[in-house]
Amino acid sequence: MIQVKTDSEPLNRAFSAEIGDSFLFQIHRIKKALFRRTNALMSEAGITLQLEQLPLIMILQHKELSQRELSDKTMRDKSSILRSINALEKKDLLIVRKDKTDRRKNVVSLTAEGISVAKNIRSLMKKSEDEVLSVFTPQERVDALDTIRSYADRLDQA
Hints:
By secondary structure, the protein is mainly α. The chain has one domain (about 25-150): Winged helix-like DNA-binding domain superfamily/Winged helix DNA-binding domain (Arc Repressor Mutant, subunit A). It is built from seven helices and three strands. It has helices at about 10-20, 25-45, 55-60, 65-75, 80-90, 110-130, 140-155, and strands at about 65, 95-100, 105-110. It has a three-stranded antiparallel beta sheet. The radius of gyration is 21 Å and the shape is globular. The N and C termini lie far apart (about 60 Å).
């Protein structure tokens, strides 16, 4: 039997160098660190939500919206939004009712428990963000947020 020596180290280095220069990959690394810590804090607090459900809870704490508006705000398709809404409704965190002026529309709002969970999540997200971003100086943190917000605003308008 012939044994072929495969040295994957140069390939791994090339791949690492390539994605190391990827803006998308670096943003993903930051997001992953934030989500990992937020998930741990939520688990410790006994909050059992899926990551895709969080934006709905956070958005709805400010006002009720139609399913279509939630889909637009979260940039998710209708079926994905509907799955999240159904799961949150089963947990008694939100309610769905027909719109008074347009019976074809469903309006979604948080229950009292949903509002309480949203406040708790907001607190945990802030704690997570503070912990993860503690590697930044206060000025670096301000600068990074300003830069990322500026990029996001420009991309939204593109």
